[in-house]
Protein: Iron-containing alcohol dehydrogenase
Amino acid sequence: MWEKDNSIYQVKEIRTKTTCYLGVGAIDKIDPIMERLSALGHRTVLVVSGRSSYRTCWDKVQKAFERHSVSYVHYDRITPNPTVDSVDEAVALAREAKATAVVAIGGGSPIDAAKSAAILMENPGWDARDLYQLKFVPEKASPLVAINLTHGTGTEVDRFAVVSIPEREYKPAIAYDCIYPMFAIDDPALMTSLPADQTRFVSIDAVNHVIEASTTVAASPYSLLLARETVRLVAEHLPRALKDPTDLEARYYLLYASMIAGVAFDNGLLHLTHALEHPLSGVRPDLAHGLGLAMIVPAVVKNVYPAKPHALAEVLSPIAPGLKGDPSEAMEAARALEDWLFSVGVTSKLSQEGFGEEHIRKLVNLAKETPSLDTLLALSPVEATDQVIEDIYRTSLKPLPR
Structure:
């Protein structure tokens, strides 16, 4: 059915690049990866992580370093919604040690910070604020290995990174070919200790990726193919992982869903949900990205469904069965999506997270002014006017009317 929304005369770019090792025990691949890096002359690396989660695999990583005579410096102060200041600190550490490659250990925040550091290590004279205010276009970065510890962002296989500029309340995104990780490790056994809320939020991030990637003006048959499978896998396996966090099969398929969702938006790109969430967590750095997305995606679907009814009816069918691809179903589709989010335990709306009518104008301005978000807004299947953006934020203050 989605074929009705796809133009065969619009040439699409199909991307797959990173070598990703997926499966229980994939962490053991760190040994041949370090052997490869050492053979290429990278004998000192910068390790980027959060304060504690890296310990789930640190013993094997350290042993691989030792076995292949790779020394390291470790920056372990990355927080959720990482900042340009943290990136600059990591880069300073790398330069002092003369590191020539980067190993990221963690979820989206450490990997995105590591990608940013990898660019700056190869581009002296610039800092992270320059990078995220788009003051230069990097063409090279230090080689990067991503050991992924969450099943949501897909950043381990794509060319995107997000870092905040706190004094401006900006949360821009960058996308450059030079920051595809050289290797990625997706091992579900490293994710069984994820707390329930983080399990929910990262999985919802993956669903958001494909709702957008299948409906941008750049969406392709490839991004649509990956989108429905992502939603099917998350709908089936998220409840299992919430019931039993140690269920390796559930974690595996959530991780696979996250990975293919990363490939989907690397190709189809993103639009309104991410462009409008970034101002939320730019203003509130403690707000989980996946929660921010969950609060606004039903209103996004309500607004874009009439423009992409066939694609959304197919992509959402695992969680919203019965949609026929009629533009008049927009509210029905949005309510079904919100009901599914509530069913997996994500019931908050913006008003419950401290946002009110008085914040809407500021959020609209940030969506329009934050570097790079204009690119996402331009990819929306409906024109991202101030009125559309205001409607999404306003509708998201409370549950949809029934």
